[in-house]
Amino acid sequence: MSFNLIDSVRGLLGADLVPKASTQLHEDESRVQRAMSGIVPAVLSGIIQKADSGDAGRVLAMAKDTANSGTFSSLSNFFGNNSLLERGTDLLKGIFGGRMNDVVNLISNFAGIKSSSAASLMSITAPAALGAIGVQATSTNMDERSLVSFLDNQKDTVMHAMPSGLNLAGIMGLSSVGNMAHRHSNVISGVTEQVRGSHNAGRKKSSTWVMPVVVILAALGLVWYFSNLKNNRIERDTTMAAPTEPGRIAASPTAPGTVKVKLPNGVELNAYRNGIEDQLVSFLNDPARKVDNNTWFDFDKLNFETGSSMITPESMPQIRNIAAILKAFPNASIKIGGYTDKTGNEPANLKLSQARADAVVAELRSNGISNAQLAGAEGYGSKYAKAGANASDEQRKMDRRISVSVRKK
């Protein structure tokens, strides 16, 4: 898929939304992060359902109006601005109608934050979601039919992003994914018949069964696909990658390929063969290998929640290993670099890569590493990304990484 709606919305919201919201709303940052993990796909699901239910024209108008007004580009100003929040609330009402309060309460209970905080966060997300759709609709000259098709192409990405435990389907009156697929097939076939009727009034009705059958078959395939997904799947960004620029040394663990990496102080680490621990210790132990600013070692088991700087729990052992290596080499210091792929806008990518690099440095500090051994953190955004924004996620994943550069031995 050449355009990822989830990534676009998260890029518009920015990496600094969560800490800023935490301060302004007086909520715990981790709970705000949990809320946003549900709000973005929930709002987009509401938009998709509204378009699927025969109101594609209204969705298209809302999206284009939001894009043209520039409201979605002022998201950082929403806090403390009642008129902007009211505008966002109006958009939410347009999306969810009478179910808006139910969705707000669902997010509130899911994340453990106040209902008023959930409402504010959703009021900020609604213009970002509609604005992203509006920009895309305008640039590609979408009509109602192409909007429905566009949203359908985004549906599985939105569904995958929905966190486990957020029962939005019950609130939205969707008993199953099959219900959504069936509804979409009706919308597509209905709009298709309207277009055919306006341009081909004299054609025989016997030809009108082709498109509905094709769409229904596609919908059945979609139902089967969703029903076989694991219920607790959480999409994450990964830092594993292959070499992309001179001087970069990508970790390339082999399966099973685990080794014991021995440190000078007698500590042994469990690590991948040729992984970051193995390569970093070899570099520090080898006097012939000189320190420079162009040699970087990639983490191979460091993940973040999608679109955020929150490090996943399973990544902590590798960070603890890097901390152990620094403790065994007390004269060494390192710099952390953060990188993203080319999707989204570059200012947002720079913010996200910086936030992720900072998060790793903060975690190393919490593991007892002093500032003397930490030469800073820098986010490079998509500066060194090789895969295009339209490349597959598998290719783009190689550009999303965190790396270590030794600055002193």
Draw up the topology in text.
Elements: H1 5-13, H2 17-25, H3 29-69, H4 82-96, H5 100-111, H6 115-139, H7 144-161, H8 168-172, H9 177-199, H10 210-227, E1 236-238, E2 248-249, E3 258-262, E4 268-272, H11 276-285, E5 296-298, E6 303-305, H12 316-328, E7 333-339, H13 346-366, E8 374-379, H14 393-396, E9 401-408
Parallel strand pairs: 2-5, 7-8
Antiparallel strand pairs: 1-6, 3-4, 5-9, 7-9
Short note summarizing the structure:
This protein is 55% helix and 10% strand. The protein folds into two domains: 223 residues, no CATH class; 173 residues, 2-Layer Sandwich (60s Ribosomal Protein L30, Chain: A).
Question: Which descriptors would you attach to this protein?
Answer:
409 residues; single chain; 55% helix; 14 helices; alpha/beta; 9 strands
Measured by DSSP, the beta-strand proportion falls in 5-15%
Mean pLDDT, to the nearest integer, reads: 78
Q: In total, how many beta strands?
A: 9
CA(first)-CA(last) distance: 45 Å
Numbering strands along the chain, what is their spatial order in the largest sheet?
2-5-9-7-8
Query: What's the main sheet like?
Result: 5 strands, mixed
Please give the domain count: 2
Helix and strand run = HHHHHHHHHHEEEEHEEHEHEHE
| Helical residues, percent | 40-55%
Total helical segments: 14
Identify low-pLDDT runs: 174-211, 213-220, 222-247, 252-256
Structural class: alpha/beta
Shape descriptor: elongated
What Rg do the Cα atoms give? 24 Å
